[in-house]
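Tokens for 2-hydroxyacid dehydrogenase. Go.
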Amino acid sequence: MKRYKWERSVEIVAFGVQTDERALLERAFDGRHQVRSLDVFLNSDTAPIAAGYEVVSTAVNDELTAGVLQELAVGGTKMIAQRSTGYNNIDLRAAADLGLTVARVSAYSPYSVAEFAWGLALAVNRRIVRAANRTRNFDFRLDGLMGRDLRGRTAGVVGTGRIGEAFARIAHGFGMRLLGWDIAENPACTELGMTYVDRQRLFTESDLISLHVPLLEDTRHLVDAPALAAMKDDAILINSSRGGLVDTAALVETLKAGRLFGVGLDVYEEEAGLFFFDKSLEVVEDDTLARLMTFGNVLVTSHQAYFTEEAVGQIVATTVANIADHLAGRSNANFLVTPAQQPAAER
């Protein structure tokens, strides 16, 4: 990791730090800064913890509403250093109004997410989890475990940036036909033989659909009831991007109707307060998620697609660089808001 000539020392508090992430994060500042790593997530209840910390580092499921940001600013916070690419959890307008600097990690290993998305797709297609659970109980029947060859089938890639491209390369290796949808074509994907089509055609023709777009107002519930109705009855849907891309209630109704070969979800639109926590001894009150988990052809994991040594190392390194630039009075391409700017999404 690059070593920085720090302008000054500050106290940093990091919310939503996973156990495997803690040592990487605390070592990253060369002992120059005091870093307090917390496994609790930032919200209106926990915001008072940040009082006195100039830099607050946040995770994707932290809640940085206008009210939370106001409390942080009053407590002396000057910078929000988000440890993720997505930032839909941050009220950028409020941050700008309060004079807060906000930065994110604009890129990390695309292979971490693309490979995990394929892990979900293969597990769903070949019923691997069901098979493993059976054999653990010494049940070696093959009933209900039949999958399909992927070679020759059609993969629909929704969002063909770095992660979507990595996913498409793996699909190409399987010998699949490639369809893509995005606001701009990726030349690397067209070189693989990808045909760019409108969303309706992609949903209609694809045997496997994987989502790799950010969560914006225009993409919220991108996969809604009409999109699900357009899909093949035996299609596989994979979402390792953002939970809000899928209308989960509509997905449940689709599955209840006996449609879709399988679904793999690493994200869920109401995951905040659930994912990254141990809820095994509690009653989960989310009826939609509870119903979703009852389907044998649905596999849900807890937002872990990014969680590899390489990706987390890059996330930490970029977070350190963002904080170093803030302390030096600089900005970089990862900065979403600086005190003199409007939010990046609105410029």
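The chain has a mean pLDDT of 94.
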